[in-house]
Amino acid sequence: MLSFTVRMRFEDSDHEAIREHLIALTNGSRLEPGCVSYIAHFVSDDPNTVLIYEQYKDDAALEAHRNTTHFHDHAIGGLYQRMRERHVENLSAVA
Questions:
Q1: Domains, the chain, ranges and CATH?
Q2: Count of alpha carbons within 13 Å of 32, Cβ hemisphere only?
Q3: For the residues of the chain, what is the DSSP string, one character each?
Q4: Measured distance CA(8)–CA(23) in Å, rounded
Q5: pLDDT, the chain, mean
Q6: Residues 52, 87: Cα–Cα separation, whole Å
Q7: Cα separation of 76 and 80, whole Å?
């Protein structure tokens, strides 16, 4: 299983547009057969920062996710166009 977080920062003026992209991306991602978990958050003490926790069954499932229409429309065409910073952390489960 693949697990990782994606942290992105945005301008305050983009908050509502980012929220709409996150809702659409979350809803589409959760319907993918290889998606185990997809949870998008605004960081409570920094509302211009988004943290997305993602889990996929395997590399093929992640690749399938990156080729979906909702990923292209709302991540590449939405979030990535407005983000100011992006950081990915790959995770290793303890148990």
A1: 2-91 (3.30.70.100)
A2: 28
A3: -EEEEEEEE--GGGHHHHHHHHHHHHHHHHTSTTEEEEEEEEETTEEEEEEEEEEESSHHHHHHHHTSHHIIIIIIIIIHHH-SEEEEEEE----
A4: 15
A5: 97
A6: 11
A7: 5
Question: pTM for this one?
Answer: 0.94
The first and second tokens of residue 88, run together, are 């990915």
Contact 7, 64 (CB under 8 A): no
CB contact at 8 A, 55 and 2: yes
Nearest to 86 by CA among 75, 94, 73, 72: 75
- Sequence-separated (6 or more) residues with CB below 8 Å from residue 83: 8, 9, 10
Give the model confidence (pLDDT) of 16-32 as tens digits. 999 999 999 999 999 99
